[in-house]
Amino acid sequence: MKLNSKRVTVQKSADQLCEFLTDVKNFEGLMPENTSKFEVIRDNAFVFGLKGMPEIALELKEVVKPNKVVLGAISDKLPFTLTGDIREESENTSSVELIFDGEFNAMMAMMIKSPITKFIETLATNLEKL
Fold first, then answer.
1. Which fold has domain 2-20+59-128?
2. Which residues touch 61 (CB under 8 Å, ≥6 apart)?
3. What domain of life does the native source organism fall in (predicted)?
4. pLDDT tens per residue across span 4-44
5. Would you say 12 and 66 are in contact if contact means Cβ atoms under 8 Å apart?
6. What would the 3-class secondary structure string for the chain be?
7. Closest CA to 98 of 32, 1, 2
8. Are the C-beta atoms of 100 and 91 separated by less than 8 Å?
9. Are 71 and 59 a contacting pair, CB within 8 Å?
């Protein structure tokens, strides 16, 4: 299952945005209002919970400066990645699209598609406000 957020413009250079997304502590400020838990568990990993959903732990999997930041689920129960595809627009502006990619059975995919779509759109919207 692959879901894409809208591409949003961020008032940061591609390098700055890549650095921002590489620091997992910064994700706390991007989380939706219905976040019930956010905790940095290692320098490159955090766990978060949304009301009504199980907690999810993500870790930094790959960084291709300044164009790509990949976070992946630590647990095998919900195997997925969340990729930030960054493009430089100008010296002080870049754009980013978030791509959720996971392998789920049809029943699970049907259950999580709507909340995950809403989640990545919220992250994108909050990135736009930076």
1. Alpha-D-Glucose-1,6-Bisphosphate; Chain A, domain 4 (3.30.530)
2. 70, 71, 72, 81
3. Bacteria
4. 999 999 999 999 999 999 999 999 999 999 999 999 999 99
5. no
6. CEEECCCEEECCCHHHHHHHHHCHHHHHHHCCCCEEEEEEEECCEEEEEECCCCCEEEEEEEEECCCEEEEEECCCCCCEEEEEEEEEEECCEEEEEEEEEECCCHHHHHHHHHHHHHHHHHHHHHHHCC
7. 2
8. no
9. yes
What is the distance between the alpha carbons of residues 128 and 130, in angstroms, rounded to a whole number? 6
- DSSP, res 36: E
Q: Is the dihedral of CA 36, 8, 98, 90 positive or negative?
A: negative
Q: What is the pTM of this model?
A: 0.95
- Using one digit for the tens of pLDDT, what is the confidence trace for 95-126? 999 999 999 999 989 998 999 999 999 999 99
Contact (CB, 8 A) for 21 and 34: no
Residue identified by tokens 């957020």 is 5
Query: Cα-atom radius of gyration of the chain, to the nearest Å?
Result: 14
